[in-house]
Amino acid sequence: MKPWNTLSDRERDALIAEKVCGWSRSWQDDGETFLGIAMWIPPSKNEDEQTAVLPAYTTDRNAFAAVEEALERRGLVGRYEEMLIEAVEEQGRPDIGPKNTATLFPVLTAPLDIRCKAALRACGVEVG
User: How large is the greatest C-alpha to C-alpha distance in the chain, in angstroms?
Assistant: First the structure.
């Protein structure tokens, strides 16, 4: 996998959708010619409900709420919070909070790119 800082926002969104939120990817095909268009199937939907539009998890706080809901459904909130604190410390972000800050502070104030990276790590996906 490419390093996190080299991925575009849409590549990051696709990674989050697949690894954290449970979306699956299929490829659009007209029966004769492979069109090469990635289509996405949301969790608990069927193939008839495909979409080419992924939520903008990495840039839209409202869309990111679905990531936190997915982590909660999977029982990974505690692990996510641990990974979030580590990600904040890695970034050396004193504006977010010192090492001894309560868990809640980084969860509420960390930028979305850091929160996305922590969500992936909570699901066992290592991102650099």
Answer: 60
Cβ neighbours, 10 Å, residue 49: 10
Query: Which pair of tokens denotes residue 93?
Result: 């972000």
- By the 8 A CB rule, do 64 and 116 touch? yes
Pairwise CA distance, residues 72 & 3, whole Å: 26
- Nearest Cα residue to 74 out of 117, 120, 106: 120
Q: Are 65 and 56 in contact (CB under 8 A)?
A: no
Predicted structure pTM score? 0.76
CA–CA gap between residue 86 and residue 120 (Å, rounded): 13
112 or 1, greater pLDDT: 112
41: which strand partners? 24
User: Please, which residues bridge with residue 28 across strands?
Assistant: 37
User: Residues with Cβ < 8 Å from 83, sequence gap 6 or more?
Assistant: 117, 118, 119, 121, 122
Which segments of 1-128 does DSSP mark as H helices, in order? Answer: 9-19, 61-73, 77-91, 104-109, 112-122
Q: Give me the amino acid identity at 26.
A: S
pLDDT in tens, 53-70: 778 899 999 999 999 999
